Amino acid sequence: MTRTRQQFTLVSFHAHPDDEALLTGGLLARSAAEGHRVVLVTATAGERGLADDREREGLAALRMVELAASAEVLGCARVVALGYADSGLHPDPADPTSFVNQDVARCAEELAQLLRQERADVLTIYDANGGYGHPDHVQVHRVGLLAARLAETPVVLEATVPGRAFTSVLRALAFLGHPVGGSAPLGTDRVFSHPRVITHRVRVRGALLQKRAAMAAHGSQRRGGNERRAMDRFVRLPLPIFWLVFGREWYVEHGREAPDRLDDPFASLRSRQIRPWRTRAGLDS
Ligand SMILES: [Zn+2]
Fold it and tell me: Which of 120, 95, 140 is nearest to 31 (CA)?
């Protein structure tokens, strides 16, 4: 059977190394496997991530190595580091290097230049809450949205999770006595997104092993500090439970009517509701 295949360029913008695996790993791996160009961008090196004092020095360099390994597993064609400082969960408002203290317009122009260079068809960012509310994640939303507007990137997908479903899964795991059930600091309605605004539920079962390997590549965040960390628990979940928790990814397409629950991240481009930067017609057998 022969059909026309379109190939697109997807740029995935993240705050810290490991976010790409947790939030979008399946989408990136699936897109790359389908022949699309996938470019990974990180605002910071995550140097304020999990670590004890002995590990703090050199953490940025280590996390960039881990990011490169994750990107390779996921099939990313290019990794770009914008080089801002990790703001941490509780930013110092006086720190001029922190990503969260940067001018949004200036950062957006920097990202827009990359989007133009790559002729990006899709940009992934985070939802307006920045998921669970990390200041750098909120900044990714602000910067990414403006950058897409400046570069006229046709599709913006906000990586998210349906808040209620996510907390239900965590409660079920907690009820079963699984330690992951108590590991997420969720407790309000102002995290992630309400189901009614979610446009995409992307099945990533075919990319599950790559997603897990990408998460596993972030070794510093599996062992950081003295405690056993959530990332390590996630990676060690039995595959059926890993599939339950990580086998789907959710996105809010900016400007698209919801809820469509689309599986195809490129649906708007394919249906020609939005004109892509470029399409390459090819044969797919
Ligand atoms: Zn992060």
Answer: 120
Q: Which helix (H) or strand (E) holds 126?
A: strand 122-126
Tell me the whole-structure pTM to 2 decimals: 0.88
Instruction: Classify residue 107 as left (phi > 0), alpha (psi -120 to 50) or beta.
Output: alpha
Separation CA 75–CA 31 (nearest Å): 9
What would the pLDDT profile of 212-258 be if each residue is shown by its tens digit?
Answer: 999 999 998 888 665 667 888 889 999 999 998 899 999 999 988 87
**pLDDT tens sequence across 154-199:** 999 999 988 776 666 667 666 766 555 554 443 445 678 888 899 9
User: What's the gap in Å between 136 CA and the centre of ligand 1?
Assistant: 7
Ligand 1 center to 108 CA (angstroms) = 18
Domains of the chain (ranges plus CATH)? 9-163+193-273 (3.40.50.10320)
CA of residue 37 to ligand 1 center, whole Å: 23
Distances from the Cα of 199 to the Cα of 95, 143, 252, 282, angstroms: 37, 21, 5, 28
* CA 206 to centroid of ligand 1, rounded, Å: 25
